[in-house]
Protein 1
Amino acid sequence: MIVKSTPTLTALVLVLGLVAAGPALAADGKQLFADKGCTACHGEDANTPLEPGYPRLSGQNAEYAFTQLKDMKSGKRNNGLSPDTMKPILEEVTEEEMKALADYLASLPRLMAATTPTSGEGRKLYMTKTCVACHGKDGLKPVLKTYPFVGGQDQKYILTQMMDIKTSKRVNGLTNAMQPVMHLVQDSEIEAIAEFLANVK
Amino acid sequence: MKTLIRAVAVALVATAAFGTAAYAAGAKDKPAQGKSLGDKDYQWNANGGEKDEALHLKPDLANGRDVYEVCAACHLPEGWGQTDGTFPQLAGQHNKVIIKQLADIRALNRDNPTMYPFALPDQIGGPQAIADVAAYIGKLKMNPEPGYGDGKDLEHGKKLYKEQCARCHGDHGQGDNDKYYPRLESQHYNYLLRQYQWIKEGKRRNANPEMVKQIQWMSDRDTKAVLDYVSRIKPPANLIGPKGWKNPDFE
């Protein structure tokens, strides 16, 4: 009985193995970025958001991006569009695929937005409100790989994230390192910092 | 009902985020965590580790200045911190206290997610760097105008300080370098308040268990009064800097 069923079992295991291996074989970040619909909102180059308020993703730190994807899927990150828009999309994306996506995004060049002259106030605040300590000069040298690049980010997006971290609407990942200093920054100052970051060259 | 479920879910998520140490740094960046308050066999100020190494190294003040540049972004070039208590005053703090706290933060024996990356060896260096920066900090003159409480209950605070705190922290809050007890005089009130609460609740995991036990009975009024009192004590004149002093090392 046992001997007789072995070929069937072997076949079944093989088939299951192939099915399981399917996503692994397809874990090509670029392909996934198109197939999972990411391009629709974040742009084909991952740097042309459909609307103000959506983040630019190209050149982001891989570890940071991976954490955010996992956290939006699990609900740990639930500010902004994370729960209603990103979560349902990510239900269809495995952890392995998220890793591939994060690695792909990190491999893309960081393209800066068209720059408009700013008052200089935001740069000063960026230096004095301790932002520079963690995110580095112009928001382009995060001190840990788990921290995001913020220079050149979409202005409305970065403004919302600062506000949400300040008010604890966003509490995932390492926001607990940033939240305790956010009371140092007035809302109007956050606007100036967002304007500066969005226009980093 | 749906709202209730959602509220519970949000609360759970928030608890999860704050409840864990949440150091998402890669495993390679993450040192092994030592025993902490509440663990079996926790020993306050256990010997060993980088603390001991740093204590026995000869400090290099010039390198201490270079290391301190990282710290200066938040604690300011003068080491005066922020009067609102977001960042403590470091200037004038005892050598052994700085060494112990820095070693504890990077060994994850004291939770400080904001400071953690700046305590890592790849940011500041090994035990020698700890020795150097501690020596540099110890030479900085203190802030003549730290942050205070409301000043309404100072007599009560003075009485409590003498009864409860002076035995370890000294008659004017000078602390004790040899025993790793911090200098409290002229520390920012809000910083003292936050650390005190965390020590009381066990959230500051490298606290001295004797102190944790000793302060449990103190009321909110007692706490505010005693910390306001100690924040207003002036250290000896030779330890205080002039008003508005700027550290020329960073100009």
Protein 2
Amino acid sequence: MDFATIFTNALTQIISPITASYALAALGLAVHFGYAGLLNFGQAGFMAVGAYGFAISTLTFGAPLPLALLMAIAASVLFALLLGIPTLRLRADYLAIVTIAAAEIVRYIVTTNSLTAVTGSANGLATFERGFFALNPIPPGDYSVGQLRFNERNLWITIIAWGLVLVCALAVWGLMRSPWGRVLKGIREDENAVQSLGKNIFVYKMEALVIGGIFGSLAGILFTLPTGAVQPANYGSELTFFLWTALLLGGMATVFGSVLGAMIFWVVLSLTQGILLGLIDAGVITFLTSIQAGQLRYILVGVALMLLMIFRPQGILGNKKELAFS
Amino acid sequence: MVVLGIFVGALFAATLAPSAAAASPNPSFQVHAPMQQQEFSIRGTLRDGSDPVPEVRIVATSSTGFSAEVTTDANGRWVIVVPEKGTYEVLLDVATLPEGKPLAEGEANPRIVEFGTSSNMGVIFKVGENAAVATTSFGAVLAERVVAGLSFGLLLALTAVGLSLVFGTTGLTNFAHGEMVTFGAVAAFGLAAIGLPLWVAIAGAILLGGVLGWVQDWGLWRPLRHRGSALVPMMIVSIGLALAMRYIILFFFGGTTEQLPSAQSPLLKVVGVTISRNTLISLVVSLVVIVVVALLLLKTRFGKATRAVADNPALAAASGIDVDQVIRMVWVVGSMLAALGGILWAYYRPGVTFNMGQQILLMIFAGVTLGGLGTVFGALLGSVLVGLMVEVSTIWLEADLKYVGALAVMILVLLFRPQGLLGRGERVG
């Protein structure tokens, strides 16, 4: 078994743009759930809205990069408003069901054959990333940082992705230290108490939903840029659940917990895959096919989510005193 | 044979299962992989109903000057290999169609084919007399859809009873309920595959579903309740359980679609409405089971105790009802009904897959929310309405959008009547 390759692959996962995208989407969930107590089970829907908003603006309307980005953000704000108006006044579990339903509606709409001209239906859309890579200032060539090798494309997307995560994380950190953030945490703990102080809790929750949704849509764009392709099958409810696993792993009411959680999530997936496949190749494990080994990892994800929730609900970085559960 | 099935299933899982493909990590995000060796093709099968139509000329041309033609083979199949992805015009030469088998009305010819990310594009031309049968009167189509909708709605109602009772008695929104549905169908398939007669396999699968419900409550939910876990963490635990169960089923069952015995059934004509035999049986079975469950809830001591616990667990406990016993039974009965619903769903779709429960879970939620979370009779009513909506909407909507209408209506209902149709007007904010 080639441990060097396995560990290099795992190391690549730590800084991969996909991990950054997970971290950003999980950060959005941290704003929703960790700070505002909103059970959003439709983060995959926000990601799809962002990715498709960006891709459709670029391909169908020929929008330049900044405009396409604005369109994607505007679409996610609209989506958040549509979701929030009916449900933010209701109990938490209603929001959960409505958000997961809305995310599925988005997925059905971008999959349907009747809109193939715009959305590409099940095949999705491709080649909308040129505007982004046209801005790449890094000269073509191969670069290596320690064990890791990049070409100019990978390096550019990695820098931008993690730069965006850093900016958003700092923004959340600042927001949650502000009076606005304190009110939000107050709503999470006891909305009646905050309401009795004269705060309009509906507006605060809506603002939190919009901010987390924007993070989700930016994450959705990041998710598609490395391959330059968006496919509806990637935005099912399982994506949302993986994001929740990453968030709860790191700690839901922490800023860097979502980043740490996303990194651990991908590193563990990569390591288990590498080790299991290595053992199968070496003939140590004979009762698994390599595809079953891949599936085994997702069984572990589910079990990990259950165990985390039962035994360490505050996550790795969290403080048990600050828990969003009522 | 079973081993082979699992192996083939596992092979297919990587390519077919959308969730597995979606989740697989992408260590190198290189897209511009060398594509020279790859073959792109446009293909299809020309059939009149189930009879293949051979010897028909089909031509593909592109704006870049490429042009190729084929004739359909004895099975009606045709494949045109094209040099690159792009936009092609596919023309069916109407003159080569056999007599009495014209192109169906409204079929676009030539057809524009645009390659997306996949390397094979399918094109279906509808030909012959069988294609024209679809234009029947609106009333007949509506009646057909209503019957199908009732059948779907009632099987939804079966599965919704468990979800609704569990919510009513414990407050848990159980996301793993969809996997109980899958389990029923997979267990029935497995038992039938080892040679048991169909009715034994179905009864066995329902019993196994009940056992699984008992084990779940015994090993997981009861200890959590006794720890005093809050509802939101329990909901997230149920999501973890759903993921784990789904991939355990994928692990053993594979990503293929399998059929239960006699999944193909003849079409019957009942009072002027065309309906497949299986749909009719499913309709009758679910109706009978639902009436029995309703009578049990209304008339028996145990039913009364269940409703008392759903109403107010503390008060029920104070008046001498063993709340844990009631909840345990609710899990067992709810899981058995979910397993039966799963078997009927496998006949209705038709097919058994590892993620079939996930597909139906949101429809169950829609039904339960529409009727009122926690009210059993509301769940029954809501599920039937959702089933009707899903099927009737296909008259106007594309079939691949049929679930959207039901989900959208659920969101709208929450806007105006958050407690649902039969829910009590208590504060849910």
